[in-house]
Amino acid sequence: MKYSIHQVIHDVSVRLDLDDADEPLITVNDRGARTIADIITSQVEWGARQVIEEAPLHLLGTGVPLRGGVAWQQSPGVGMAMLLLPDDFLRLLAIRMSDWRCDAKIITVHDVEYQWQSSRFPAVRGNPERPVAAIVTTPMGLAVELYSSLGGAGVTLSKALYQSVPRLHEGAISLPPLLYHEIISRIATLTRQSYVAFA
């Protein structure tokens, strides 16, 4: 859901028990003076990102559909597939290939389970009954490895949703509604810390 920066500034100001009249802070010289609104605005993206990275998946909402083609390691529809992730990628919410029985378990290269995906024993690796999606770093950027498919050339990506990096754009920011109040609290904390640094 999109929230205007004015609403965010107001809600953070209320949380801080401040008047959001945008009075300048006292600084050494007037040219360097920053207002409360300036400080809040400078913390919005960072505060939102922190909360989104820490939150349980079920609080993030529906997310954004992933676009792009899937590349296959062996032959189309068989074995591990790879999908490059967009530049604004933050978290993978759900992913599923058309021959899988359920959504994949999402892991990273730091999970012990990632090592199992290269096992010579098929039962240990991800499969259509127990699919695994691993977030990896490649020379082309972040990607997700999908373990694994057996259906052949007709296998397609049936579901792929991600949470994008929160960014202010044209005076608004998209945030998960269920996390809005937590995000406001985090921005307020960061603003308070910055306010002390400037005071």
Description of the structure:
With 199 residues, the chain is α+β, with helices and mostly antiparallel strands. 27% of the residues lie in helices and 27% in strands. The chain contains 4 helices and 10 strands, in the order βααβββββαββββα. Strands 3-4-8-7-6 form a 5-stranded mixed sheet, with no helix packed on it. About 5% of the residues have low confidence.
Topology at a glance:
Blueprint lengths: L1 E3 H11 L20 H19 L9 E2 L5 E2 L6 E6 L4 E9 L7 E4 L3 H5 L15 E7 L2 E9 L7 E8 L7 E3 L5 H19 L1
Parallel strand pairs: 6-7
Antiparallel strand pairs: 1-10, 2-9, 3-4, 4-8, 5-9, 7-8
Helix pairs in contact: 1-2, 1-4, 2-4
The CA-CA distance between the termini, in Å, is: 34 Å
Weakly predicted, low-confidence segments: 24-32
Category by helix and strand content: alpha+beta
Largest sheet: 5 strands, mixed
Q: Provide mean pLDDT, rounded.
A: 90
- How much strand? 25-35%
Shape: elongated
Number of strands: 10
Rg (C-alpha, Å): 22 Å
Number of helices: 4
List the strand order in the largest sheet: 3-4-8-7-6
Helix content: 25-40%
Q: What are the secondary-structure elements, in order, as H or E? A: EHHEEEEEHEEEEH
